[in-house]
Amino acid sequence: MQGNRTQPSAREDGSFQLLEPGLTLSAASAHDGEVRQRILALKYHNDRGQAMHLARLLVPLLHDLNPSPQVITWAPTTTRRIRERGIDQAEWLARAVARELRLPCKRLLKRINRNSQEGQNRITRLTRPRFRARVRRDMRCVVVIDDVITTGATLRAAASVLHAEGVEHVHAVAVAHRRRERGAHR
User: Fold this and answer.
1) Tens of each residue's pLDDT in the chain, 186 residues
2) 3-state class of 15 per DSSP?
3) Is residue 160 in some structural domain?
4) E-strand stretches of the chain
5) What is the pLDDT of residues 92-113, one digit of tens each?
6) What integer best gives the mean pLDDT of the chain?
């Protein structure tokens, strides 16, 4: 997958999309303003009501996908972060998106490292997220939800293990992306 990457295409509305073989990486908005405030309220203040508002930003990115997704899942955060915050914000977002799209939401990924991406430099972020996947053999297309894309490492790691388990295409979608800073989204 490394050699076939393309540059993200930025859009006027602040969203972006990056296409790679077997992976579509998208974000609905830039990580600023009201979107940022809603993400922070969900993530750090356990304001679960924000999940539906943020999910509604993601749904338009998921209409008319080709191939059509069979299931929605999420990129789980570390168990330490869940204990600290009382919530896995990506799970809440995934469940809200699944309700909107009338698709099943299943936990397909398990985080197998304990280190958080938050506050880490780019090099550390790119090597840190690790997952284990468990999928049915007939799953060919999966949507993976996360809250924010900084480098794309978390969603790429999730896609990689899903591909290793036989999933042919992964649509990796986040509510927001941090604006490109010295090589982000590569």
Assistant:
1) 334 444 445 555 667 788 888 899 999 999 999 999 999 999 999 999 999 999 999 999 998 888 899 999 999 998 888 999 999 999 999 999 999 999 999 999 999 976 655 665 556 545 568 899 999 989 999 999 999 998 888 999 999 999 999 999 999 999 999 875 544 433
2) coil
3) yes
4) 9-10, 16-20, 23-30, 71-74, 109-111, 131-133, 141-149, 169-177
5) 999 999 999 999 999 999 999 7
6) 85
Does 2 map to a domain?
no
Residue position matching structure tokens 């993200």: 8
Domain span including residue 77: 11-177
What total of structural domains would you count in the chain?
1
* Cα–Cα distance for residue pair 123/92, rounded to 1 Å: 28
Q: What is the CATH number of the domain that holds 133?
A: 3.40.50
Q: Does residue 96 fall inside a structural domain?
A: yes
CA angle (172 as vertex; 168, 175 as ends), nearest 5: 165
Q: Are 174 and 154 in contact (CB under 8 A)?
A: no
Question: Would residue 93 count as lying in a domain?
Answer: yes
Interatomic CA distance for residues 129 and 92, integer angstroms: 20
